Structure formats: structure tokens, C-alpha cells
Amino acid sequence: MAGADPMFRRLVWRALRWRRGRAAVVFAALTVGAAIVCALAAVYFDIHAGMSRELRTFGANFYLGPAGAGGATWAEADFNHLIAGAPPGLVVAASPCLLGTAQVGARRVALAGVSFEGLRPLAAYWQVRGAWVAADFDDRNAMLGARLAEELERGVGDELTLTNDLADDAAKPLRVKGVVETGDANDRRLIVSLALAQEWLGQPGRLSHALLRVDGPPERVAAWAADVRQRYPALDAKPILRIAAAEGLVLDKIKGLMGLVALVILALATLCVNTALTASVSARAVEFALQQALGARRRAIVAQILAETLLTAAAAAAAGLALGWVLAQLIGRAVFAAAITFRAPVLPLTVTLALAAALLAVILPIRRALQTEPARILKGE
Amino acid sequence: MNIIETHNLTKSFGSVIAVNDLTISVRRGEFVAFMGASGSGKTTLLNILACLDTFTSGEVFIDGHNLAALDEEGRRVLRANKIGLVFQQFHLIPYLTALENVMLAQHFHSVTDEPAARQILGDVGLAHRLHHRPGALSGGEQQRVCIARALVNEPPILFADEPTGNLDEENECNILALLQDLHRRGRTVVLVTHNPDLAARADRIIRLHHGKVFEP
Ligand SMILES: Nc1ncnc2c1ncn2[C@@H]1O[C@H](COP(=O)(O)OP(=O)(O)O)[C@@H](O)[C@H]1O
Ligand SMILES: [Mg+2]
Question: Whose alpha carbon is nearest atom 25 of ligand 1?
Fold first, then answer.
């Protein structure tokens, strides 16, 4: 588009200002469209990054732990025995875990002892800054939940020291190897090797629970669960597949609905813009005919209409992004009780869709502008 | 040499024959008036000669160019280079100033040249109205902007279709004086009018009646 030509720029700018009422209608329609798309996309991608991944990508689909209320522990030996005795191929991954609290300086923090090697395949969705702790026997490195990292003001590579109120001389220095964003309780935990947690919490050989990924037909899984409960009456062994799948399904439906709402709003905005532009082009038939009489090429007319529309659309996209962002926070607070984090795809998606809607809306008006015969229009009888 | 020539030119709109087997010519530098009642085909003829419209049959030559041999782009180029147009309804762009309206014609012809545009507006007596929009100008002033716009690219032919139809008598005189002056300076001027007093000022009158030349 002859963007460098000052006369072209002046023409576009003056035309927009002269018909600012119509431009305002186009701007408003596209702003609303862009705002809705931005808000829904922001929520969509944030759920996707958080909850949905937890439910679906989180490979765990089986829970093993003491029956009854929290706090109880069970023997790691039982766990090892159970896993070793499971039908071949049934248990694909297993992550035993001991939870407790520990002291870091003056603060009490939630401590989780895990098998890093067992957890990693189940936590593929975790966003890790730095790196995973590679080995289960590594008791000098730890991983830190992102929220806790903020509170402790520690980052990747920093040192922190576990202390003990009761034994003054006890201190365990740790290096933060990775900071993890998980979207769940682990965001507020200090994650260390299982052996270290057991030692530090004074619970050698004990576990809080274990999460497994089991593979196989549901009947086979159910049969194994029943077998475990029979042999260890104090243990709860249950598939969590069904719940996760159902929640994932609801989430899919909500997301589908959001996509639909965004599409409908965009379609309405496009219609509205199309109507406004059609009226505008009709009202300006003489103007375009005159330009052609002065020697303008048809593509100069197309360029002017396109430039006016796209300029308005770009402004609307910017306004829509701002408005949509506020809207996303309101939705996040009202529906998910959480702030929505800005995810990268939202910006290009919103801008692209707003511009695409404008382009779609301008096709017919441009065709109409080109169909008119200058001679007939200028006769003006 | 004839700058405008038609041979058996016919233009029909469906069953209406607006220009009927017309053979006319205009010499270079001539001031010709087309006269005729409303509906006699004056505007249709002018639009064809101005390369704005196509025709049904016959031949048209503008400054030696055979219009039948030109496509839309060819007509566009010829129009931009050879022809200045003045309309009864002025057709100024409402959101551009007088100066910008004139510069627009330069823009679509080649490149803008603000000093030249100022100069030509000064020539038609509008040096003090450069930055007014058409809405702030009188009818006579608007028509003078139109004439400036038509002339700024220095086309050899000026077509004026009832240029004073919307003006009072005083402004009518001013515009006519402008046209006569242009003619004196060598331009070919074709004036469409149904006012016999105006037509009488031309070198020659071509009378149209139902799309044909009418010889009384
Ligand atoms: N676009 C058109 N479609 C149909 N008929 C037309 C069109 N333009 C002009 N005419 C007819 O052609 C005849 C000549 O019109 P026009 O050239 O405008 O006359 P004038 O300018 O002399 O008043 C009229 O009968 C008019 O109704
Ligand atoms: Mg007419």
C-alpha cells in the first residue's frame, strides 16, 4: 500500500476524521470483538497451561496411600513390595512422596520428599526454570515451587539452608537446581529427595502417599486395586482416571463453548462492520468515481478503503487487547478464583482475528465500490 | 488538425439511444459549445469524449488516439494526461481543503507539487481560500477550485458540463470569463450548456437533438 505517499496518508487520515461517526461504529464493533476474543483466549490458554494440563498431561491416574484422614504415613517397604509384585507392565511410573514441614531460616515451609526419577515422567507438564534434580540419591540439590521461591526470594542456583529449632547445630545446605511452576500445591513446596525428607522429618522408611500411572484395561486395574486393598487393609488404592477424565471432558466442553462464543461475537462484529462499510462506500460513491475520473487506478481506491479499515481495526485490536485483559481478570477471579497469567498466543491470536474480521467485512464493500461506473455516478441526475 | 473526432458514434443504454450516429470534430485550440435540451445526450457524449465511458459503435479519436483500441487502463492514462473535467455538481472531496483537492489531481496524475497547486488556485482568484474546505466556500468559489483542479496537470482539452448550472449570474460570468481566458491561451475548451447566451461566446455551437447533430 502506498504508505510512504504523503497525499495517500492525508487522504486516509482526513477521510477517517471526516466520517468519524462511521469509523467509530467500525471501531466499536471490532473493539468488542477483539476484547471478547482476547478475554476468552487469555482464559483458554491459561486453563490449558494450568488446570487442563494437570488433569490430562499429569500422567498419574492411580493413588496409593493410607486410608482415612491426612497425616498418616505408611511403610516405604510395603510400597516397594507392592510395585515389585504388581502384574508385569501394569505400573508404568510411580512417585512415592513424604510430606511435612521444615524450617528455612525463620520460616516454616512445606517440604516434599520425592523420588525425582519416579516423579519426572508423571510431571511432564511442570514448567521448570533451571533443571530437574537428576538422581534420587542427590541430597544436595532441591527444587523450589515458584510461589515459595518468590516468598523466599530465592532463584535457580541460590543456596538455602534447612534448620532445626530443636537441634541448634543441625543445618542442611541445599542448592536450588530448579524452580517449578505446577499450578498445584507443589508451587508452595520445597521439593527434596525422599531419603533427605525422611531423615530430616525423622520418619525413616515412611511415605505419605504415592501417585502411579497404571496402564491396561480398567478391569485389570480395578482387580489389582481390590487385591492391594485386601492384602493391605490400611491402604487406600484407587484409580483416579475416571474423575480426571470427566473433569477433562467438562473442561473441553467449556473450552469448546468459549471458542463458539468468540466465533459468534466475531461473526456479529464482522456483520456490523460490513454493514457500516457498505453504507459508507455507498455514501462515498461520488468520491471514488471522482478519483477515478482524475486518473486514479482502481487499486488506489482499494488501497484507500483497505487502509482506512485496517487502521481502524488495528486501533480496535489494541483497545480490545486492553479491555479483554481486564475482562479476563474479572472472569478469572469470578470463575476460577485466580489471576489469569498472560500467555504468548493471546496477542497474535487477538490481533490476527480482529484484522481478519475487518478484512472479511471489507470484501463486499470493496467489490461494490469497484462495480460502480464513474460516468454514471458523476452524472448525478 | 482535429483534437477531437467522432465517426458514426453511437451509445445506447438498452433501448434508449443517447448518442445516435454522431460525426463531429473539434479543432485544436477551438472553443466549442454543445447545446441541446435536457436528455439530448450532451453528458453522455462528453463522458465518452472524456474517456470516462465506453460506446456502442463508431469511432472516436482524442488527440490522435483511437479510443476503441484502448482498454480501461489505456483510457485512464489518456484521461489523466489529456483531459480536464469540470462538473455542474463540482464533485469536490468534502474533507480536503481547496489546495488538497487540487493536489489530489496531481497525486493521481503523477506526483504532488504544492507550489504549482497554489499558483493555479491563485490564477483563478482563490489565493486567500487555499485552506478552506468546500463546505466553507461559495458555489462560485467551489467551481473555481474545480477549474483549478481540472487545469493543474495542464491537459490540452477542458470539458465543462454545465459548469454554471448551479451558480448565480455574477458567478456565471466569472466562470465564463475564466474559460474564455483559457481558450485565448490556447486550450481546447468544450462547454456543455443549454443557455444560448453562454453558447454564443464560443467559436462554434454544436446543437444536439435526440443524440444527433441538429442543423436548424
Ligand atoms: N446510465 C444510463 N442508463 C440509461 N439511460 C441513460 C443513462 N444515462 C443517460 N441515459 C439516457 O440517455 C439520454 C441522454 O442523457 P444525457 O446524456 O444525460 O442527456 P443531457 O446531458 O443532454 O441532459 C437520456 O434519455 C437519458 O435518460
Ligand atoms: Mg447532462
Answer: B39
